[in-house]
Amino acid sequence: MTSTQSVFRDGLLAGQSAFITGGTSGINLGIACRFAEAGANVTILGRNPEKAAQAAEEVRAFGSKVLAVTADVRDYAALEGAIRTSVEAHGPIDILINGAAGNFPAPAVGISSNGFKAVVDIDLVGTFNACRAAFEHLRKPGARVLSISATQGSVASMMQAHVCAAKAGIEMLTRVLALEWGAAGVRVNAIAPGGVEDTEGMRRLAPSPAIMTKLAEGVPLKRFASRSEIAEVALFLASPAASYIHGAVLAVDGGHAHAGFGTSAVLG
């Protein structure tokens, strides 16, 4: 795993409250840990209570207040309840991270209608639900929304029809909310990671070391990102250094999208 040395000052998010959907694993757990390390009080949301509690312990090691809540982002009422619990514990939300996602590699003819709908509902509808349910708590100058997209949102990729559709929707939703919520002082952006080491998504797309090595050769930087590298970008977009970045979708993929990865079979 590639290590990174942070360029940010200590306590950058001190006293702020971050609500992170999908925060129990992968990229989003990495963001939760980084935000806690930067001083934020963190709420992580997942569907599995035991997994959420374990993740909260990992985040708590960084010294901030941490709350684990459970809900399915497809269930709007449950999501509203989780957000209210977070606000009661940590105060109004300053940063919303939309990270809940689903993925499985399959050709379009191998995806059932229910399978396609499940990915779109978790990724896209779940992102909207979290934004909509959190808005009244976010509605203040300086609040930030950051959605986790993927390079599949802008580059057509074989065996990813469901994910491409969902992530493209997230990116357009990001731009629309930027137009509508900017006047309220809420900055809305998205990150589009490429392949990231040590995540469930990468394990599904590259189920063996040989496939991982082959895919990494197609990345101009000849490697995939570490979770910490994505977390540093998230911290940047949540920081005052990004105070005039609004409605942006920032690709963090080592230049992979420029190499035409979407035209080759995902599994080699």
UniProtKB/TrEMBL annotation:
NCBIfam families per record: PRK07576.1
| Oxidoreductase found in the keyword field | yes
Matching InterPro entries, A to Z? DECR2-like, NAD(P)-bd_dom_sf, SDR_fam
Question: Which UniProt keywords are given for this protein, alphabetically ordered?
Answer: NADP, Oxidoreductase
The record lists the lineage as: Bacteria, Pseudomonadati, Myxococcota, Myxococcia, Myxococcales
Q: PANTHER family from the entry?
A: PEROXISOMAL 2,4-DIENOYL-COA REDUCTASE, PEROXISOMAL 2,4-DIENOYL-COA REDUCTASE [(3E)-ENOYL-COA-PRODUCING]
| SUPFAM superfamilies found in the cross-reference section | NAD(P)-binding Rossmann-fold domains
Q: What is this protein called?
A: SDR family oxidoreductase
